[in-house]
Specification:
Helix content is 50%, strand content 10%. The longest helix is centred in the N-terminal third of the chain and has 30 residues. The chain has 22 helices and 13 strands. The structure holds adenosine-5'-diphosphate (ADP), magnesium ion and zinc ion.
Length: 613
């Protein structure tokens, strides 16, 4: 999550200004009340004389100054004195010389403080005016503990369940929450149990946020939302204050929904962060949230919803009974779900009559709701660019390709030698896939560069939505991934860098087989690596390694062996089909793209591969 420095600085600026203001106020008060009884200032020499004459008592010796009472003050004059100390040796010398003398007063505390405060006040004020806060207002200086702008209630949410598709089970579960919110009184009268917290769990883009809003829309209650990542950047204590405030406000407007998006950013297991140390602020905020959850009574009519795509890293305390004790899975849609979601988004564009939504759905396995919304938009953009009357199936197909492989960049040209390498590389992927009937069917091969990283691409169409894979399928997939480099190695004297991404992906699979799925006999059915990072590949998830050096070496060598075996297998398949490889590459160089009938003709020439060992 991006840290926004502006926000943090704003709080700091606000706090300094506030502190400076209060300190000045306090000091002025002390100063004003004290000024009535100012002590009489006397020179040190006079002090010595009066002391010797027994006229002083109640002395108090301070930092460079002596204060005390005068026993018989002249009427109308103060009965107190103050003098500035002079070092005893010097004082003795001076009094022998019979001169009047005095020390210099120490810089007064007030002056010192003002010396510090003036610049602070100046910058504080400058900051304050630049940022444009309003004193006492919602975002102003005196409102530190109050929620800031993001905690607001949306009173009239327009989203309904009909706007969310393909997640029927989740909707079914949430309908109960809606019924409760519509009539909390009768629920509690009958003693029905309503969960305090419902956690929506699923990959990004599956509609979790949308569903939470739909619950508020259906029940017609205020929707208080806040995102966990917002807490991370806050000043210590502010996050906790906001959580408190969120609950206070929601209770005041009950029935209401509190929705915490990206709960994982806030509720990450304590001590599971990076080794660079914890985040006190997050911990305080989390503790406050837990305390609020324990303290509230669902019959008050407030329901807490939260969403996360990383439930596995949540602090277990959040999932305990009486907290987020109900979890609702919001998964990627299946084909029927995709048809329904496309139905929702397609309403917004003009379609060519007779276009088959089912066909589009079958081309997009694995797409989430957000991907599909994006797809419809892209297809409409493509049709607009052609200045067409309506969006056609071809627009959708092009949009799918764009989304899968990045934006088509026809203008990026390869030199002929590079094109030749890429053509053989892609054909290597295609032929290994054709020879292994259990892998996804090849849909299209192209050497038109796509996106930044891919010089060519081979699109394999998954035959169905897959949730489980067996070991053979994983081996096949690695063989296809390594088919590109294997083809290069057979045709050219050297191999190229074009296979970097293939190698990384194949290695990931091999590592997972060994360390996570227990598929390597020599290492047994042990899981060495926790299953994290499914959804956020960019974020490094630090966890202590829980196996020995010896095991690490075994894992590394097992991974190496699996990859090498897959590579040899790819080479063997391609050697057996070397004529098709050369012919296909030639055709690819000429046509740039092979699909449909031409592809089928090529596939016919590749017999199913049989491993012999
Ligand atoms: P999440 O919170 O799970 O990451 P969002 O709710 O933010 O996903 O979804 C982003 C957008 O994608 C939504 O605004 C909506 O346009 C579209 N979308 C996602 N899931 C669905 C769905 N199940 N049905 C319809 N549209 C969806
Ligand atoms: Mg979301
Ligand atoms: Zn490749």
């Amino acid at each position: 999550m991006p840290n926004k420095p502006g926000r943090r600085l704003r709080w700091m600026g606000g706090n300094i200004f506030l502190a400076a203001f209060l300190v000045t106020l306090m000091l002025s008060l002390v100063w004003i009340t004290g000024s009535n009884r100012q002590p009489k200032s006397i020179p040190y020499s006079q002090f010595q004389t009066m002391l010797a004459a027994g006229q002083l008592d109640n002395l108090s010796i301070g930092d460079g100054q002596i204060t005390g009472g005068i026993k018989h003050p002249t009427p109308g004059e103060p009965d107190k004195f103050v003098t500035n100390q002079v070092s005893p040796a010097l004082a003795q010398q001076l009094s022998q010389a019979h001169v009047t003398f005095d020390g210099t007063p120490p810089a007064s505390g007030l002056a010192v403080l003002l010396g510090w405060l003036a610049p602070l006040l100046f910058f504080g004020a400058l900051w304050y005016f630049i940022i444009g806060g309003r004193l006492g207002g919602a975002g102003g200086v005196l409102a530190t503990g109050k929620s800031k702008a993001r905690v607001y209630a949306e009173n009239d949410v327009k989203v309904r369940f009909a706007d969310v598709a393909g997640v029927d089970e989740a909707k079914e579960e949430l309908k109960e929450v809606v019924n409760f919110l519509k009539d909390p009184a009768s629920y509690s009268r009958l003693g029905a149990h309503i969960p305090k917290g419902v956690l929506l769990v699923g990959p990004p883009g599956t509609g979790k946020t949308l569903l939470a809003r739909a619950v508020a829309g259906e029940a017609a209650v205020p929707f208080f939302s806040i995102s966990g990542s917002e807490f991370v950047e806050m000043f210590v204590g502010v996050g906790a204050a906001r959580v408190r405030d969120l609950f206070v406000q929601a209770r005041a407007q009950a029935p209401a929904i509190i929705f915490i998006d990206e709960l994982d950013a806030l509720g990450r297991a304590r001590n599971a962060g990076l080794p660079t140390g914890g985040n006190d602020e997050k911990e305080q905020t989390l503790n406050q949230l837990l305390a609020e959850m324990d303290g509230f009574d669902p019959s008050s009519g407030v329901v807490l919803l939260a969403a996360t795509n990383r439930p596995e890293i949540l602090d277990p305390a959040l999932l305990r009974a009486g907290r987020f004790d109900r979890q609702v899975l919001v998964d990627r849609p299946d084909k029927t779900g995709r048809i329904q979601i496309l139905g929702i988004h397609i309403k917004k564009i003009k379609l060519e009559p007779g276009i088959s939504v089912e066909e589009i759905a079958s081309l997009t396995p694995g797409f989430t709701g957000a991907d599909l919304a994006n797809l419809v938009n892209e297809a409409a953009l493509l049709a607009t660019r052609r200045q067409a009357e309506a969006v056609t199936l071809a627009d959708f197909q092009a949009a799918i390709e764009r989304i899968i492989a990045g934006l088509e960049k026809r203008n990026r040209l390869l030199v002929p030698k590079e094109r030749e390498i890429v053509a053989h590389h892609e054909m290597g992927h295609a032929i290994t896939a054709m020879a292994l009937p259990d892998t996804d069917k090849v849909q299209k091969i192209s050497i038109i560069p796509h996106g930044i990283a891919a010089l060519g691409y081979t699109i394999q169409r998954p035959s169905d939505d897959r949730f489980l894979m067996n070991r053979k399928e994983m081996q096949d997939r690695m063989t296809v991934l390594l088919g590109g480099r294997a083809a290069e190695s057979l045709i050219f004297p050297d191999v190229s860098t074009g296979a970097a991404d293939d190698l990384a992906r194949a290695t990931d699979i091999a590592r997972a087989m060994v360390a996570r799925y227990g598929m390597e006999p020599s290492l047994g059915q042990t899981s060495y690596e926790p299953q994290t990072q499914h959804y956020l590949p960019g974020a490094p998830d630090w966890h202590p390694r829980q196996y020995s050096e010896a095991t690490a070496a075994k894992i590394d060598s097992a991974v190496h062996d699996i990859i090498e075996a897959a590579f040899s297998r790819a080479q063997a398949i391609l050697r057996a089909n070397i004529l098709v490889l050369r012919e296909g590459a030639r055709e690819l160089l000429h046509e740039e793209t092979i699909a449909d009938a031409a592809l089928a003709k090529l596939a016919e020439k590749v017999p199913a591969w049989e491993d012999k060992d």
